[in-house]
Structures are given as structure tokens and as C-alpha cells.
Amino acid sequence: MLQQATDFRAESDALYRLLEPLSDNNLEQETQFKKWTINTILQHLHYFNYAAHVSLSDEEEIVRLLNDLQESHKTGESLVTFTDRKLNGARGKSLLHLWRDYYTDMSHSFHESDPKKRVKWAGPDMSVLSSITARLMETWSHGQGIYDLMGVVRKDCDYIKNIVVLGNNTFGWTFINRKQAVPAKKPFLRLGAPSNDIWEFNEYSENDLIEGSATEFCRVVTQTRNVQDTTLTVVGETANRWMNLAQCFAGAPQDPPPPGTRYTRV
């Protein structure tokens, strides 16, 4: 039984409840993330949920899907255009329900899967556990743009610890992805959970640390906030370098949003 699959379902359900009352026109609103509309975000989440689900049982098909994506990059096709084409322009309430119905079934499949099984993905193979954790992270991070647009402060649950762990585990990746030397030691993390528990990671240090809200740490490593727009305490050269570059997701290096450009609208 894979708890992260239940966590993924819970985060997806919360986002669905936020979106369900909206009209087709409302779903065309632009977010602060690259001017993606809500429809664009739903297409992105649904298509890569589909790809992750396929990877559980059909290695030949997931390799074909990933090759299609790679070929589209070579032709200069944007990711937005690619997913829109693959989903035949699905949008509005029909897309919302398509996404909801699919992630519901998908969560059941992951819940019953061996978390250690290796599956194909862009770049190196990953475990089933890593795959569903990545889907949780993507849903949470892209969902942030929708919550911000709608002026809603999300009430996080302690399962965001999955994203904290992913963020901490991709410390080295942040620098490798930019062809920079990986610092010798990770900064000490002391983060306050939504439940008010304290989560600590890495070797204790007063001179190289990040302290504050787990939610804000997640926002920085998923690049939904610039660290300057948080109340995190960041001490030390390595900690500051990391928080200004952090990227817990795969792909080419991406810069965090400029200060003041991502926020919850009033």
C-alpha cells in the first residue's frame, strides 16, 4: 500500500473542489505562471498523470510517449502546444472532469503498486514511489498558480513532507543541472509543519541553515515563489545559493520567478 498515492489523491481532490464551481469561461483565466490558463494547467497535469500511469504497466508505450515529447522539443513545439495537441484541444468543464476521473483511477493503481519497482521516465528510470511523489509535487505546485489567481490561501496538510523530502533530495541536482560544483554539505533544515510539528533534516549547523515554514520551503523548491517573497530564515553561502536556484523538478534549468511576481491575489 503506497501512502503517497493517497496523498496525491487528496491534493488533487482539494484542487478539484476549488475548480468545480467554475464555468468554462472562468477556466480560461490566466495565472501568474507563464500566463498559463487554468485549462493549460489542467491539460499539463492530466497528460503527465496519464504518462506516469502508463509507465506502471506498458514500458513500450511510455518510451513512445517520451520519444514523442523529445521530438516535439526538437521541432521547437512548445510544451503547451504539445499537450493541447495530444489532448485534442480538451478544455473547460469536460477537461476538468476528464482530469478528475483519470487521477481517481490512477491513484488506485499506484496505491497497489510495488513502491520499489523501476519505471521509465524522462532521464533516468525512477521508482514507483518517486513517480507518484513527483505527481503530488506537480499537482501541488501547479495548483498554487490557481489558488493564487482565485485569492485562496491553501490549507496544507502534513503530506507536503513528501515535497520537502523531494526538495532536500534534489539539492545536488539543482547545481548539477546548472553544471556547477555541488557544495560539500547540505544546509541544516528546520521547518514548521502545517500541524506545527518540527521537521529537521541534514547535519545541524548554526552557520548554514534554512528555517521557517515547510510550506514556504516547498514554494521555493518548486519555484512558485522567490525566496525573497517568503519569511524563511536563510543563513550561510550554501543555503543562500541553494534557495536562489532551487529546482526540485526535472528538465532544463529554470529560474525562480522574480521577486513580487507570484502572490495570492486579494
Describe the structure.
The protein has helices at residues 3-19, 38-57, 59-74, 79-86, 92-111, 128-150, 161-169, 171-176, 214-221, 237-245, and strands spanning 118-119, 126-127, 188-192, 198-201, 209-213, 233-235. Helices cover 51% and strands 8% of the residues. Strand 3 (188-192) and strand 4 (198-201) form a beta hairpin. It has two domains: 3-155, dinb family like domain (Four Helix Bundle (Hemerythrin (Met), subunit A)), CATH 1.20.120; 161-245, 2-Layer Sandwich (Nonspecific Lipid-transfer Protein, Chain A). Helix 1 runs parallel beside helix 6, helix 2 (38-57) crosses helix 3 and helix 2 packs parallel to helix 5 (92-111). It is α+β, with helices and mostly antiparallel strands and 266 residues long. The chain has a four-stranded mixed β-sheet with strand order 4-3-5-6. It has a two-stranded antiparallel ribbon with strand order 1-2. The protein has ten helices and six strands, in the order αααααββαααβββαβα.
